[in-house]
Amino acid sequence: MPVTQLSVFLDNTAGRLAEVTRILGDRGINIRGFSIADTADFGILRLIVNDEMKAVDALRTAHFTVHEGPVALARVPDVPGGLARALAGLADRGINVEYAYAIVQSIIAFGMEDLAAGEAILCAEGIPLISADELKEL
Description:
Layout: E1 3-11, H1 16-26, E2 31-38, E3 42-49, H2 52-61, E4 65-71, H3 82-92, H4 115-124, H5 132-137
């Protein structure tokens, strides 16, 4: 029972990711999971959203290139070795995993050009940061 993933092609410039999320938010579309792969010039934003058709329409109307494709969602046990068990099962049967990302979590890891400034901005926006010690307790 695959679900639809959206792949959005973005220029690797400040504000493009914010624009996509603003467009979706303005239309009441909830991002349930995402992944970003980047190069020096462009990025690919993979999204799982609550309303794929509405999201595709909104993004294409805003002149973004969007592709749709199927992915499998699985409840991998949140225990040591849980992910390894899932991956080993696939590998043992000859299934290559091309990419993977977590969804439906509100804890997001941001890789930024200026980490200290980015953390300060997130805090100023009222978005709490998670420490390494807090992460161990999750």
